[in-house]
Design goal:
Number of helices: 29
Number of domains: 2
Shape: elongated
Structural class: alpha+beta
Mean pLDDT: 89
Largest sheet: 8 strands, mixed
Low-confidence stretches: 422-432, 782-790
Helix content: 40-55%
Strand order of the largest sheet: 10-8-9-17-18-14-7-11
Radius of gyration: 29 Å
Length: 790
């Protein structure tokens, strides 16, 4: 009964947090959190409007393949709703965003509870679950502060079940969930999470060597084993393909990455900073100088962590070993170098310092050992040691409170505190440093530290007093748990209000489903957005204070070009940070200006005309001139007399179609205007489709160009019949249309990718059902997880 009640209390607290976010219409203010929501909105909105999953994003860098962004914006619920958009009904998409995060929080809670219950009694299990789940705040950093580890505890629990039973189904489920938890994650977290799981079970096997060896020897290597191993491998392959298909055309300009996405050892060891121990003062200060990244998990975590190290036993020593190894990994030590070279795929990873949030999760388990040591019935000979540890922990919290008050009251000390965190450029500009906010949080943290010191001391004294009855001593344990819950959820709710913005009624249309408008021309920057796009952008600025400050010239946090997919703004260049664009657009940009990075040559009148800013994105030409190679085309496009009014196409040219194009031999003046004005109407526009009706009144065929970036997955039909798509003017696409009335349908689609997305949704649905069953079982019975059967 006690276990049920405690578990349901955590569910209720998380539900209250989600309900508050939904009812008050809270939207993440900035950094990765706003990017995450903006992308989720785009994909779900397109599914509602077009009844298919977006594989293309027309508003980013003149059009780009969507697979990478599909992978990083998802959740278990969101992946399902994309396939069944009618489930969204008339709901606003912000509510679905919060509901999806809540469901993934329940995955974290279920896995943490089951894994902790395997090694702890009920109060300690509740402490661990509270510490892990309530400290998962994602408003600014959904990836590092939540999605990095949200399914890892359940993966570990499933691995234990495989070791317990020897049944290969558990091995398959472990691998399948580990692969599927990449939904909503950065792709380069795959090697990191697999390394964490490997390290955990290696440490567990080292601590329980005989038991683990006996169980491994008893495994039956039969058809079930082959099926499970094959299924697990296919799960990883499908997850990888789902976020990489079509991206071979991407040219990446991430800082510290090569164009293939790999990271050098020096960047691996240093990128983003946070690679020293000083970041862990957040445990007792309740605030990090980088407000978008926090390691806080309750004021009692630090002293209980020390108590756990003192009271460690062999059965649970693997938590300490795993935490220690991963801590060393985050500190840029020789172990970090070894992992970089030894673990497959780790050379795609960066931000080793931010893996600290996963170390924090393991610290919560170690602190659970300390909780049992201090607040569980113990022999009389341990009571003096328990009191001594509690008093020392209280002194440590008091020292932290004193330091926080002194730092908050001195501008010099506050500046020194900020500069002590090793955040390197350019990552420093990505994080929010607000000294006034820091001072307020430090004073608040000092108050909580003093309260925590009192709770720890008084709780330990009452728990070890011989004069108190068992009922009183048990009440003390639950009183301490109540303090932990109040502390953490006050922190979590405060974080919600500090790092998000409420949407007013006048701006609410921004998060509601909305048809995507077609922009006939691109704009030079966000300030020139028009129509629906301008309204959406203006109303977002009205409620988003960080965006408003950024556009006023103050650099607070980071903003990305992915937000254009929320505002429906089609920029010829990018106002905010852009890390990639497609190779054809890169080649066009380099034709007019040498350099690196996502930076379109807007100073060239010819370039911006080709790109659909000085002329419509859809244009018509009497002829199409074929040039053998892009190298041959460069001197043509950059010729001073060329003004963008001749259409040039290049390979690939479909077999049998070469006769419809004219080889270019400089037979015409480049200043000739070969364009034609034909009436046309956009009949349909969404992520994957553009349908245009055009009346060709000329007696001969003409060419229609569309200044949206070319990709080999584009297909076209004209009046229902397939038509070849030519690569036009280096970066764009063109088709030939016959005289008369024509309906041109450009479609971006990969049947294989669509099948993988559907399979992922089915898989996610299975896990939601499985986790729901685990939730119901946990909430309705008191059990040891080792006895559970699939």
């Amino acid at each position: 009964m006690t276990a049920r009640l405690l578990f349901l209390c955590i569910v209720a607290l998380e539900a209250a947090h989600t309900a508050t976010a939904i009812l008050l219409h809270r939207v993440p203010s900035g950094h990765d959190g706003f990017q995450y929501f903006a992308l989720q909105y785009f994909f779900l909105n397109n599914a509602i409007q077009a009844h298919e999953v977006a594989q293309w994003i027309p508003y980013m860098t003149q059009g780009t393949v969507a697979t990478l962004w599909y992978g990083i914006q998802g959740s278990f619920l969101h992946t399902i709703v994309l396939q069944l958009p009618w489930l969204a009904g008339g709901a606003d998409l912000l509510s679905i965003y919060h509901l999806a995060m809540f469901i993934d929080e329940l995955i974290l809670l279920t896995g943490t509870w089951l894994l902790a219950r395997r090694f702890f009694d009920v109060p300690a299990t509740c402490f661990v679950a509270l510490s892990v789940v309530a400290s998962a705040v994602w408003l600014d950093q959904p990836y590092w502060n939540f999605r990095l580890y949200y399914a890892v505890p359940l993966v570990l629990e499933l691995g234990h079940r495989f070791l317990d039973t020897g049944r290969w189904r558990w091995a398959f489920l472990t691998a399948n969930l580990l692969a599927l938890q990449t939904i909503g994650n950065l792709p380069y977290l795959i090697p990191l999470t697999s390394f964490v799981v490997f390290t955990y079970f290696t440490c567990y096997a080292a601590a329980q060597r005989n038991n683990v060896l006996d169980r491994l020897r008893s495994l039956e290597w039969n058809a079930r084993a082959a099926t499970a191993i094959t299924g697990g491998a296919l799960s990883f392959a499908a997850a990888y393909a789902c976020v990489t298909l079509g991206t071979e055309q991407l040219v990446n300009f991430n800082v510290g990455r090569s164009q293939t996405g790999t990271t050098s050892l020096s960047y691996f060891l240093s990128y983003g900073g946070f690679t020293d121990l000083r970041k862990w003062n957040d445990l007792v200060l309740r605030i990090s100088p980088a407000l978008d990244n926090t390691l806080y998990a309750g004021m009692l975590l630090a002293p209980l962590l020390v108590a756990g190290l003192i009271a460690i036993d062999r059965r649970r020593v693997h938590f300490v070993l795993t935490a220690a190894l991963l801590l060393l990994f985050t500190l840029s030590t020789p172990l970090s170098r070894l992992v970089y070279y030894a673990w497959p795929g780790m050379w795609y990873f960066r931000h080793i310092g931010l893996v600290s949030s996963l170390v924090k999760v393991l610290f919560c388990f170690v602190a659970g050992i300390g909780f049992e040591f201090l607040f569980k019935a113990n022999p009389a000979w341990k009571r003096a040691a328990i009191r001594a540890v509690a008093v020392l922990g209280a002194i440590g919290l008091g020292a932290g409170a004193w330091w926080a008050m002194n730092t908050a009251s001195s501008a010099t000390a506050l500046n020194r505190y900020v500069s002590s965190i090793t955040v390197d450029e350019p990552a420093r500009s990505l994080h929010v440093f607000d000294r006034g906010e820091l001072a307020r949080r430090l004073r608040q943290g000092a108050g909580w530290a003093m309260t925590g010191a009192a709770v720890l001391t008084v709780g330990a004294l009452f728990r070890t007093s011989q004069r108190n009855s068992t009922r009183v001593r048990d009440a003390v344990s639950y009183a301490v748990l109540a303090f932990v819950a109040i502390d953490l959820y006050q922190f979590k709710f405060s974080y919600l209000f500090d790092r998000s913005d409420g949407i007013g009624p006048a701006q609410f249309h921004v998060v509601e489903p909305s048809p995507m408008p077609y922009s006939y021309r691109r704009v030079s920057g966000l300030q020139h957005a028009e129509g629906v796009a301008r309204s959406r952008l203006t109303d977002t600025i009205a409620f988003n204070h960080l965006l408003r400050r950024r556009l006023e010239g103050q650099h607070y946090g980071s903003h990305y070009w992915t937000s254009n997919a929320l505002w429906f703004v089609d920029e010829v260049n990018t106002t905010f940070q852009a890390d990639s664009w497609l190779a054809p657009l890169d080649q066009l940009a380099r034709t007019f200006r040498r350099g690196t990075g996502v930076d379109f040559p807007v100073e060239s009148e010819t370039a911006v005309k080709l790109a659909g800013m000085r002329a419509d994105k859809i244009r018509f030409f009497a002829h199409a001139y074929i040039v053998p190679s892009l190298a041959d085309l460069a001197p043509v496009l950059t010729n001073p007399s060329y003004e963008g009014d001749l259409l040039f196409v290049s390979a690939p040219v479909p077999a049998g179609e070469r006769s419809t194009t004219i080889p270019w031999r400089w037979q015409r003046s480049l200043s000739v205007d070969d364009s034609r004005q034909l009436p046309y109407r956009v009949e349909r526009f969404d992520a994957n489709n553009l349908v245009v009706s055009v009346s060709n009144t000329a007696p001969e065929p003409v060419w229609m160009s569309y200044s949206d970036v070319w990709h080999p997955w584009w297909r076209a039909t004209i009046n229902g019949s397939p038509a070849p798509v030519y690569r036009a003017n280096v970066a764009y696409k063109a088709v030939r249309i016959e005289p008369g009335e024509n309906v041109v349908h450009f479609r971006f689609h990969s049947a294989f990718l669509a099948a993988l997305m559907t399979l992922g949704a089915v898989n996610a649905g299975f896990w939601l059902i499985a986790v729901s069953a685990m939730l119901v079982s946990t909430a309705t019975s008191f059990f040891r997880t080792t006895n559970l059967e699939p």
